[in-house]
Amino acid sequence: MTNNEHTEHTVALVTGANRGLGKRFAEELVARGAKVYAGARRPETVDIAGVIPIALDITDPESVRRAAEEAGDVTVVVNNAGVSTQANLLDGPIEDIRLEMETHYFGTLAVTRAFVPVIERNIAENGGTGAILNVLSVLSWLHPGTSGAYSAAKAAGWAMTDAVREDLAPRGIHVAALHVGYMDTDMVIYIPADQKTDPALIAKLALDGLFAGQNEILGDALTRTVKASLSG
Ligand SMILES: NC(=O)c1ccc[n+]([C@@H]2O[C@H](COP(=O)([O-])OP(=O)(O)OC[C@H]3O[C@@H](n4cnc5c(N)ncnc54)[C@H](OP(=O)(O)O)[C@@H]3O)[C@@H](O)[C@H]2O)c1
């Protein structure tokens, strides 16, 4: 089965779809023939042809609950929304450290918990398989002090992804993680262009990997090197 054959029956939700990598995921899913809900805190800022904008703040339980009700035909979730406070764990504002964990860990988990029953219901009724892609980082594995809060939250996201994958595999839902280094988005506007990859290419690569059943999609050379060094 080609990736397009898979995605033309897909109904996807992308979180944080109004800009950056999330926007590229939504555009790529539309190009592959999927029905796409573009989740955003301010849905009026979604500017992507062919998507259904939907209000979704992943740190707000009521917003997550409403989104799962509104987007009741979803079979694929891309947990993309994220923040980068650059807080150091010892000196950084504790609110920033909490925001990283509330967003990358608890927010992603809240969306997952709300949408698993939705995905399960739809695959039971219509057949096929479901999928969840969690956008993580090379910093799930590399933990510099200067990005302590972000790295800890992405490491927690990695553990969550593995645990949820084991829970959901027998229930017909594949769970994958994207790990990647710098991409050219607002999040790392201060990084020189030659050190960043194109988020549109990463979105394509990640969706290819997700629909091919990969557990971990490694987005760039740095990420592959760091992952390889973990067993060293
Ligand atoms: N850029 C990189 O170098 C890089 C590298 C590795 C991994 N990542 C990961 O890639 C993902 C996308 O980041 P990006 O680079 O595209 O960053 P970005 O351009 O800063 O976009 C972040 C997106 O997340 C949304 N968001 C933040 N908090 C949210 C919340 N509570 N509820 C809903 N949406 C929320 C933002 O919405 P608003 O417009 O409302 O703020 C925005 O749409 C993140 O998980 C990030 O950690 C990025």
Automatic annotation (TrEMBL):
Keywords tagged on the record: Oxidoreductase
UniProt xrefs under Pfam families: adh_short (PF00106)
Source organism superkingdom: Bacteria
GO molecular-function terms, A-Z: oxidoreductase activity
PROSITE patterns tied to this protein: ADH_SHORT (PS00061)
InterPro entries listed in its UniProt record: NAD(P)-bd_dom_sf, Sc_DH/Rdtase_CS, SDR_fam
GO cellular component, one term: membrane
The keyword Metal-binding appears for this protein: no
Family: Belongs to the short-chain dehydrogenases/reductases (SDR) family.
Name of protein: Short chain dehydrogenase [Actinoplanes friuliensis DSM 7358]
Taxon lineage: Bacteria, Bacillati, Actinomycetota, Actinomycetes, Mycobacteriales
